[in-house]
Amino acid sequence: MSVKTAAKAKKIVLAYSGGLDTSIILAWLRQDYGAEEVIAFCADVGQAEELDGLEAKALRTGASKCIIADLREEFVRDFVFPAMRANAVYEGQYLLGTSLARPVIARHLVEVARAEGADAVAHGATGKGNDQARFELTAMALDASIRTVAPWREWDFASRTSLIEYAKKHGIPVPVTVDKPYSMDRNLLHISYEGGILEDPWREPDEDMFLLSVAPERAPDEPSYVEIAFEGGNPVAVDGQRMSPAALLASLNGLAGRNGVGRIDLVESRFVGMKSRGIYETPGGTVLWLAHRNLESLTLDREVINLKDSLLPRYATMVYNGFWYAPERVALQALMDQGQERVNGLVRLKLYKGSVRVVGRKSPDSLYHDAYATFEADQVYDQSDAGGFIRCSGLRLRINRLLRG
User: Fold this and answer.
1) How far is CA 404 from CA 116, 259, 394, 399, in A?
2) Is residue 79 pLDDT above 90, yes or no?
3) Which end of the chain is less enclosed by CB atoms within 10 A, N or C?
4) Which of 122, 276, 280, 119 has the alpha carbon at shortest distance from 209?
5) Are 81 and 285 within 8 A, CB to CB?
6) Mode of pairing for the β-strands spanning 275-281 and 263-269
């Protein structure tokens, strides 16, 4: 395969997963691009068994070494939890599982490149996708001198089918086949599925595709209840047991997955301008998002909630598009975190056949006042005051009607 750029990096650190794209890229960088050395870097953000045998595979495929870094706690603590504190959701549905993993991976990719004295970093993102921006914008923000090799923008391969043919020709084992050509991306927050047979937005995904959750109709006939404790806006315990961030999310993944919670099938707007269809499993994250938002309803002032909600789409879009390290995201995070010191308490949720709902919440910092909220007789609220309040609130409406007839 020909290379479309004249500039060649000699020593490259590749963000390596062992999947179809990066397996081909590893071989291609050595055999076709002409790199003298390729170091495979794998960030463990919760891929589980996907990491089995990864180092041996990377070395067989041409890597000079394979570095695997356990980033699970950092990923959840420093990326997932801040997004949860902001109640971040993209286009009303997507809890940003892949979007949040990319900046932590890219951050360590840059650090490895510095430590190894590499000329460049490389990634397996396509020229159509969002991940190319997420990797490269992070690299630019952290090291202005870093070079990036993006094979999908340089080689002559036109499809993942052609990658599968290349893999067969060169004896490279890959987890994707012509019969099952969709790609997966897994971390502690979610699994995403896209491409191949899933590119038809009318086609229902096969049930055997899902890994983290059972079908709702096959979930237990009895509901599960769970209590999540929060301190400073962060979840710290499940059913009274304190856990580290990664352990807590993994625990909720298991519980929610057994109850069929967290599946979404959506068409989203990519950063580059096109629409794409993706299937996501986000079991534990779905529970945490709902729990946190409900605890905020109890502990935050109405106008603070409204302000956060008005900025939520912008925050989510920043993260989705790859601007995690941009100054505007950092500034907005500070605003989103304002008041989180009062988001303390316990949320009780009911999980049943694909659904999750809050059935109880309590907090030492609650703004809920029984005496004011009650529909029974009280001694603190004069209901006749509401008449003047409504007349003042509606004055502009009355004037508008009087003048316009």
Assistant:
1) 73, 56, 16, 8
2) yes
3) C
4) 280
5) no
6) antiparallel
Give the number of residues written for the chain. Answer: 405
- The Cα 281–Cα 226 span in angstroms is 19
DSSP 27-44: HHIIIII--SEEEEEEEE
Residue among 247, 292, 308 at smallest CA distance from 72: 247
CB burial of residue 103 (10 Å; 0-12, 13-18, 19+): buried
Catalytic residues: 21, 102, 131, 183
Tens of pLDDT along 227-278?
A: 999 999 999 999 999 999 999 999 999 999 999 999 999 999 999 999 999 9
190: tokens are 């979610």
188: which 2 tokens? 């502690």
Return the sign of the alpha-carbon dihedral for residues 83, 85, 86, 92: positive
Token pair listed for 122:
């490389």
Write down the pTM of the prediction: 0.92
Judge whether 98 and 324 are in contact, CB under 8 Å: no
Which residues are registered as beta bridge partners of 234? 231
Instruction: Establish how many alpha carbons lie within 13 A of residue 104's alpha carbon, considering only the half-sphere containing its beta carbon.
Output: 24
Q: In what order do the strands lie in the sheet with 345-352?
A: 241-242, 234-238, 224-231, 345-352, 355-362
For the chain, how many helices (H) and strands (E)? 14, 14
The candidate with the shortest Cα–Cα distance to 320, out of 272, 271, 385, 367, is 271
Average pLDDT over residues 299-310: 96
CB atoms within 10 A of CB 112: 18
Domains (ranges, CATH) in the chain? Answer: 11-71+100-181 (3.40.50.620), 191-362 (3.90.1260.10)
> Strands 183-186 and 241-242: what pairing?
unpaired
SS3 call for 175: coil
Residues in contact with 198: Cβ distance below 8 Å, sequence separation at least 6, in sequence order: 182, 205, 277, 278, 279
In contact, 45 and 188? CB cutoff 8 Å: yes
Q: What is the C-alpha separation between 368 and 383, in angstroms, rounded?
A: 18
User: How buried is 159 (Cβ within 10 angstroms: 0-12 exposed, 13-18 middle, 19+ buried)?
Assistant: exposed
Give the CA angle between residues 57, 61, 66 to the nearest 5°: 60
